[in-house]
Design goal:
Layout (H helix, E strand, L loop, with lengths): L4 H8 L3 H59 L8 H26 L5
Helix pairs in contact: 2-3
């Protein structure tokens, strides 16, 4: 069976309004993809910034505890009457480090969609 030119083109080309709908859908899909990519870029930048701040804060806390320990050991600070202070500062710092580590792992480095 031989088809006429119009019959053959009818299966290949779509009407103009269908082409416009397809173009609009393509534009909408491209816009959604752009928004998704921009959002991911912002998310990764925020994650990088916050992970740097958290690492810096944890480092500062560790250095503070090390300095406090050295000062007490060298006799610069004497907490004979206030031994609870050293324990309180050490425990508090430890809990801050664990808490920030939890936040970093849970919210900054989780791979939830």
């Amino acid at each position: 069976m031989i088809l006429s030119r119009d019959e053959a083109l009818k299966g290949i080309t779509a009407p103009a309004d269908q082409e416009d709908d397809q173009k609009n859908e393509g534009i909408q899909d491209a816009e959604l993809a752009r928004v998704e990519i921009d959002g991911r870029k912002q998310y990764y930048a925020l994650r990088r910034d916050w992970s740097g701040y958290i690492a810096s804060w944890i480092s500062a806390l560790i250095l503070f505890n090390a300095g406090l320990t050295i000062c007490v050991g060298a006799g610069v600070f004497s907490f004979v009457d206030m031994q609870w202070f050293i324990t309180a500062v050490t425990v508090e710092t430890f809990l801050q480090i664990v808490g920030m580590g939890y936040i970093a792992v849970r919210f900054l480095f989780s791979h939830r969609p």
